[in-house]
Amino acid sequence: MGTQPLAPLDLAFWNMESAGHPMHLAALGVFTADAPGAARHAAELLATRAAAVPGLRMRIRDVTVPVGGAARVPAADFDPLEHVRLAEPVTDFHAAAATAMGHPLDRAKPPWEVLVLPAEGDDTSFAVLFKFHHALADGLRALTLGAAIMDPGGLPGRPPPVPASASPPGRRAPERAGPRPLSGRLLGTVADLTRALDIGAAVARATWDVRSTPALTSRPTGTRRTAGVVLDLDDVHRVRKSAGGTVNDVLIALVAGALRRWLEGRGESSEGVAPRALIPVSRRRPRTAHPQGNRLSGYLVRLPVGEPDPLARLRSVRAAMDRNKDAGPHRGAGAIALLADHVPALGHRVSGPVVAQAARLLFDILVTSVPLPSLGLRLGGCPLTEVYPLAPLAHGQSLAVAVSTYRGRVHFGLVADAVAVPDLDALARALTTELAALAAATDG
Questions:
Q1: Residue pLDDT, tens place only, 148-197
Q2: Which of 406, 382, 386, 407 is nearest to 45 (CA)?
Q3: Which domain, by its residues, includes 96?
Q4: pLDDT above 70: residue 290
Q5: How far apart are CA 44 and CA 86, in angstroms?
Q6: Comparing C-alpha atoms, which of 151, 57, 59, 153 is closest to residue 105?
Q7: CA distance 197 to 331
Q8: Rounded to 5 degrees, what are φ and ψ at 435?
Q9: Distance separating alpha carbons of residues 300 and 338, to the nearest angstrom
Q10: Domains: count for the chain
Q11: Residues near 183 by Cβ (< 8 Å), separated by ≥ 6?
Q12: What average pLDDT does the segment 27-40 reach?
């Protein structure tokens, strides 16, 4: 693979990072082991397979043109053993993942790493933490890279094929479109400016009448805590069929209800609380100018934490999501990521740290969905039984929520500032309680 200039949003993620707020996304996978030493064998397989995946050999370096820009380039000294590490046995997979989530990736090397976690005193399971910098991959790209070092087709022991970087045999590479006429470029510029002004105005409106809670905002400490919870997807579908909306509507409503229960368990008031949740939306399309880059927009939704009735919370979330979908992912405050396309590379370099500090002004909590294949995944023949997506934690925010469905179950991955949220497990339990409450309300 040759040099790949960073797309504007990738460059923004690269420049927003700080030591206390790493910009990597991750997934914690738990595997059933079939023999003693399975974790060590898994680490050896991962290192061997990583060497054959071109996308994992790419580091990010500054470029001269455009000024302030950066690009992915092949790392001549790439050594997979510097990225795949076998840890000492641990008693708590999430505690080990939390420590690793707080450590930034080495920016001088390809920005990814894998930590294999054997279970102390237990040869029947092990975990693997996959970390990818957001400038290297979004959720879909990270999934592709991660799948390339798993057992192909669910079959144990076989190395994956090396992904082709050229067009398939017998097919011509798509031709580049010629330059647009001047009139077309002018119209495009006006449309882009109009969209940017629309998004900017929506962002300004979203900062009015903010009804969040101090529990979701904090002074950054650089510490991390993670937790996970698994729910039955059939239960979610039953709620959806009875109450209407989408599975995603139900999952977001579960977060709102869990936050309410969590606040009440802390002895804090939830009255009138409606934190702004950023819901990322993928805009990935084939044959884009930056096929490897992040293509994201988002919806901004007020979570009805202050609403006491579970069904009313779900209806509120559904209505808010419907309004966002009607407007589309190119409008509204949640589309703030689209403005990255209108900032020159040097602007990202200079303003990145400032933008990172302003995240709390834009939204209060991230709630993101990460796609996973429905087929069972294996590593060295060991089946993947649980997988918790983990999102980066924005500056000044206490909590980020990621969710994936895998093999008939819903996996919530929670990342929090460890000092601000010492009771993250209570929030995880509240998600289970909230689903039971919604199911009971819809059954009734």
A1: 999 976 434 333 333 333 333 333 333 334 454 544 444 444 444 455 55
A2: 382
A3: 4-152
A4: no
A5: 9
A6: 59
A7: 10
A8: -65, -40
A9: 14
A10: 2
A11: none
A12: 93
Q: Are 228 and 411 in contact (CB under 8 A)?
A: yes
Q: Where is pLDDT greater, at 71 or 161?
A: 71
Residue 370 per-residue DSSP state: -
CB atoms closer than 10 angstroms to residue 106? 14
Structure tokens at 409: 């179950």
Residues 274 and 416 in one domain: yes
Neighbouring C-beta atoms of residue 103, cutoff 10 Å: 15
Same domain, 224 and 345: yes
Which CATH number characterizes residue 47's domain?
A: 3.30.559.10
Structure tokens at 261: 């229960």
For 166, other C-beta atoms within 10 Å of its C-beta total 7
280 and 147 share one domain: no
Output the pLDDT for position 224.
Answer: 95
Residue 317 in tokens:
């979330």
Which contiguous run of DSSP H or E holds residue 38?
helix 38-50
The burial class, CB within 10 Å (0-12 / 13-18 / 19+), for 178 is exposed
List own/partner pairs for 243-246 with CB under 8 A and 24 or more apart. 243/311, 243/314, 243/315, 243/318, 243/438, 243/442, 244/318, 245/314, 245/317, 245/318, 245/321, 246/318, 246/321
Round to whole Å and give the CA distance between 303 and 28: 27
Residues 201 and 204: their CA atoms lie apart, in Å, by: 5
Read off the tokens for 40. 């060590």
Query: Residue 262 phi/psi, 5° resolution?
Result: -65, -45
**Nearest one of 75, 88, 77, 80 to 47, comparing CA atoms:** 80
d(CA 280, CA 212): 19
Judgement on whether residues 428 and 338 belong to the same structural domain of the protein = yes
For residue 22, name the pLDDT band (cuts at 50, 70, 90): very high
